[in-house]
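Team,

Forwarding the record for the chain on the shared tracking sheet. I've put the sequence and predicted structure together so nobody has to dig through attachments.
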Amino acid sequence: MGRQQGWLAIIFALVIASLTVLISFPFQLGLDLKGGSQLTLEIQPTVDIEVITPELVDGVKTVLDKRVNSLGVSESSLRTIGKNQLVLELPGEQDPSSAARVLGKTALLEFRAQREGTELEYQKLRRIRSEFNRDLGSYLYENNIESFDNNDEINEQITKYNNLLGIDNTKDNYNQIIDIKKRINQNITSVFTPSKLTGADLVSAGRRQEQNLASWEVTLSFNQDGGEKFADLTKSIAGSSRLLGIILDGESISEASVGPQFLTAGITGGSASITGRFSAEEARDLEVQLRGGSLPLPVEIIQVKTIGPSLGLENIKKSLYSSLIGLFFVSILMIYTYRLPGLVAIIALILYSLFNISFYALLPVTLTLPGIAGFILSIGMAVDANILIFERVKDELRRENTLIRSIDAGFASAFSSIIDSHLTTLISCIVLFNLGTGFVKGFAATLGIGVTLSLFTALTCTRTILKFFMSYQSLRKKKYFINNSNLTINYND
């Protein structure tokens, strides 16, 4: 009796702890339940790298993981599909444009010194860039880009710069403006000579607002080797009319002069800053790209999907309704078939469900629709364990054993079968979790947790509650376990 009371106390304590966890820790919901954005990315080959190997895919995925983490989107997931595609899910993110802008960049950072004798060429290109920013640059930040597609004044400006730069473009106005800006920055890049200093020498990147200005700058910190390269590079152009170019993905984003005070040793200390009249958002994007590192191969975003929060809420409601309906019909069947033990099984199932979902919140497990399916399936496993036990109890009662002895024998004889069935399911969950991706992992995780907990509820909670009921003399009757007509069985065959 004392042991039974001890188990009752433990179960009660677990119920209180589970309720506390559910109140204190919110669930992490996946894209299909919370809503958000899904981006499909395709890794592109290059002239130097024509075959995309699994190692290169892993390298791209590592860099993208760092960038996604720097974006600050919680519960995001990135998984591989096929040989050269990745799927990124951003739960709660209804505007994927900022993520797409950051993730699509190769982020190859270079520091270059201006070639001698290119001062006039650079001044001409710089003037073109200034005029472009004045005439068309502001349209890159328009929210409604369709509104100026048929604007005659804008059409004239685009035609002017296309002719000036030799661009043959049939795209819409917005993308034509992007191409013009890119071509101008690429032309400016051509007046700078590549050096040995690249983003590979970066240790970290940050951002800060420029003093007394509304614009932002990006700060850089180099490793020891990079610091020495930066000092040598700045020393070579210090005090001259040549500039230091900061190139990102083949486009010049900033050019700076180096004063004569650095003629002796260059700029030492292993740090620098990039200024280019960046807005706060532009500085953040550049910081994320540089901190994540350079992509081994370029990435193209081939599909963007947005799932609204209302659809996610509808999925949650349907999942909840289906779970409750399933539990209701299981309850009816169990009580009809097994009577009092069926009622005990339902109480144990309710406890099992409570412990299970509290585990999801505590770990935490990102819940998706397949994950909920795994949870519902694990309820079936928990019921199955109770059915094995109660059928054994019935067999013992038919042998005309006493009620208490039949209950003990039923649990003992069903033990090995329950362990075997749960163990084989757990092995399947482990294999699915290690070899599967995305939703398959979520299904395996929830099913594995559920199967493990069902062992506890079936072998401990069910037994403890049933023994507790048997402490009441009014319930200690065989008719609450089996029909009187089935109490005898012939074993002479």
